User: Fold these one by one.
Assistant:
Number 1:
Amino acid sequence: MKVESKKPVLIIGGGVAGIQAAIDLGDMGVKVHLVETKPSIGGRMAQLDKTFPTNDCSICILAPKMVECARHPNITLHTYSEVKEVVGSMGDFSVKLLKKARFVNEKECIGCGDCVTKCPVRVPDEFDMELRRRGAIYLYFLQAIPMVMTIDRDHCLYLTRGVCRICEKICTREAIDFEQTDAEIDLNVGAIIVTVGFDPFDPTSLSEFGYKRHRNVITALEYERLICATGPTGGQLIRLSDRKPVKTIAFIQCVGSRDVKNNPYCSTVCCMHAAKEALLAREHDPNVQSYIFSMDVRAHGKGFQQYIARGEKEYGIRYVRGRVAKISENLEGNPIIWYEETFGSIVEKMEVDLAVLATSFVPRSDTKELAAVLGVELDHYGFFKTARLAPFDSTRKGIFVCGCCREPVDIPESVAQASGAAAKAAEIVTGDQS
Ligand SMILES: Cc1cc2nc3c(=O)[nH]c(=O)nc-3n(C[C@H](O)[C@H](O)[C@H](O)COP(=O)(O)OP(=O)(O)OC[C@H]3O[C@@H](n4cnc5c(N)ncnc54)[C@H](O)[C@@H]3O)c2cc1C
Ligand code: SF4
Ligand code: SF4
């Protein structure tokens, strides 16, 4: 149903939840400003290979939504931008955005990539979890929206040392613009939806797992990039340390989750994403053997238990009940998993080719800063606080919260919450509740 909207809605965060909320509001006839801090919308879902429980290619189902969002007549995208100030109250917020300079003219760049091939700089690629390197001028990822380059001001030779400008000479469309500066944008909106997602927990501090010390211990998000056709190996299941094909994998659950010293809560998604990742390993190579080490398996969604059972029966996934105490490494670089098998109360060890840590979902490192700008409270764990019986209401009227910045949730739940938050915001700007 299209309705008369008085003011636009601001959505902060362009992951799957932000995209869904924007499309829902846009379809209702409400104008939306969607702000994304990265050079492209897409969020974490764009980094995933496939998604449980259907094993759909993640970007194949996300990309059409990203395109719909970008082309929607009621949605204005502000990528590579941040919210700096919010004043006012429900129905009438004044917002200041900072649009960071890309040093590339968005109207002229056609994403051909000619400039990228000639840039002499190589730095770790954040989108690929630093498993490969990119230039100082780069496309955030292959299906990025907008499909335009960004120059990394911290690493570009011209912007840091005043030399180079090769990209400028290469670009026949004259899209490179070193004169570009950061710009302030003022908006007046009726409601705000916060959907800034999560960070994966950094397991370096848990020295027992040897992450960063052992060559073949990686995180689950790194694994997602490793097996993805657009990832650093073109989708081959090999170890980056020695390019050896992977034949045995240990998936270690609850790394940083359900752990009183780190994050006492359950991250809810990891039991299922580990099953998916083990299942995909077999699809890459029918000779791969996967072991999942967990305290218990939390498969709470529709069709999830059947998915786990299929993994065990058809893909030979073996579940080991017990918490891993330590990972060491032998001379070949193979991780050795030391664990207690709690059914038999036996302490065992197992040598594998690769260990994958299912790290917990944690609030983004800049969450406190954003909460201060928005004037809202965070909960005990640092996620945005919401009311028990008004699950999308933040502690400030007119500001709503959904997706993984509220609590760890999977994609279907993020999308469902986004539609809920969009409906709440629409009530305000369409006059039903202002
Ligand atoms: C290893 C792994 C595997 C997974 N596999 C699956 C799976 O198979 N199936 C499934 O259902 N779920 C899976 N998930 C969970 C899924 O990734 C999340 O449910 C989903 O990404 C949550 O979407 P979101 O929009 O809430 O957050 P995000 O995807 O984190 O998006 C948030 C967006 O907000 C942007 N942002 C952050 N701060 C700001 C700011 N201050 N201003 C503007 N923008 C900002 C971010 O750049 C990002 O684009 C997996 C997660 C992991 C870690
Ligand atoms: S900046 Fe120029 S060369 Fe680089 S991708 Fe854009 S149009 Fe192509
Ligand atoms: S000017 Fe900067 S971005 Fe352009 S090619 Fe040189 S280092 Fe790369």
Number 2:
Amino acid sequence: MGALRITEVRTFLVGGSWRNWLIVKIETDAGLHGVGEATLEGKEATVEAAVRELARYIVGKDANAIERHFQEMYRRAFYAGGEVLNSAISGVETALWDLKGKALGVPVYELLGGKTRDRIKLYANGWYRQGMSPEQFAEAARRTVGLGAKGLKFNPWGGRRGIDFTRLENRILNDGIESVEAIRAAVGPDIDLFIDCNGIFQTTGNAIRAAKGVERFNIGFFEEPVPHENLDEMAYVRNKIDIPVATGERLFTPFAFQQLLARDGADIVQPDMSHCGGVLSAFRIAAIADSHYAAFTPHNPNGEVSYAAGVQLAACVPNFFALEHFPPEPWRFQVCRNEMKVVDGWLEIPDRPGLGVEFDEEAAAEHPYEAVDLYNLHRPEMAPKLPRFGDRLR
Ligand SMILES: [Mg+2]
């Protein structure tokens, strides 16, 4: 294909309800543009600066040579690790895939082997902001399943007042277990329930106690039972519990996932499309997972460009699991227009070129950046600010 010369890298901070989206837009001399997302929750302005530094390298280059540019940005830059630099690279790399797909007139998944499925199973997150009693959890679960959700993810312990991440008192542990029991009773045996510990248990012993307490409710996975830094301890917990372990939203690049899986540290890997290195890194991570008989699903809490990139991977990788789905901001689809549809809890795979999303700069400008720290998300006072599912799942 003919050269597509990159003329400009532009960034947009869009104020979401509990984190800002960092959208990266790459312009070319052919009039085509591509978009990617580099959202790093709570650190978006830091990543924006890193994207500007990447622009020094990439402006003037041919947009087609995606892998060459990845190697230059990642390997040749000498300092290669961490969430800030990898998020910046992810945003740029994803925008190049969007561009290539648009230039060729095909969705990105067609460039990665084509579809391995016709629709994508969703599971709901962010559906239970109203309170943490068993009754409140059960009511919210019933309502969300009524909207078509086939799976529900939640943290039954994280938002509880007085929780101590090292001590884990029986009162907190038992309240969480009772909530899981109430949710299972409310939705019946066939709905998938997933527990995200968000790495709150800071001893392996407490992570194991918590898992043992809920094993009998047929939990589909137990996510980040311990923090992400020590892969040996993640593997230790997985070896001790009878629930599959999911992790990876805070791991970056195929190297980290290779080390996780070499230790048998996960059943399901969850790289974030905005942090892991981008489309081809996610594809490689899925392949590494597949070779360890582990499943793949993108961590998916951010903006619509990141969502669309996850959908492209979900469409084509053979070991895809199910896609996380949060309640959208009421204005989300004005800022990021697309044709993705949800029918009865399943997402229909779109067939528009590239990522299939049109980013509207003017609509985005109506939602300016506001500094917010991610750790505030789990505080009860945040609840009124968070989007909720309306009368449908999307
Ligand atoms: Mg998580």
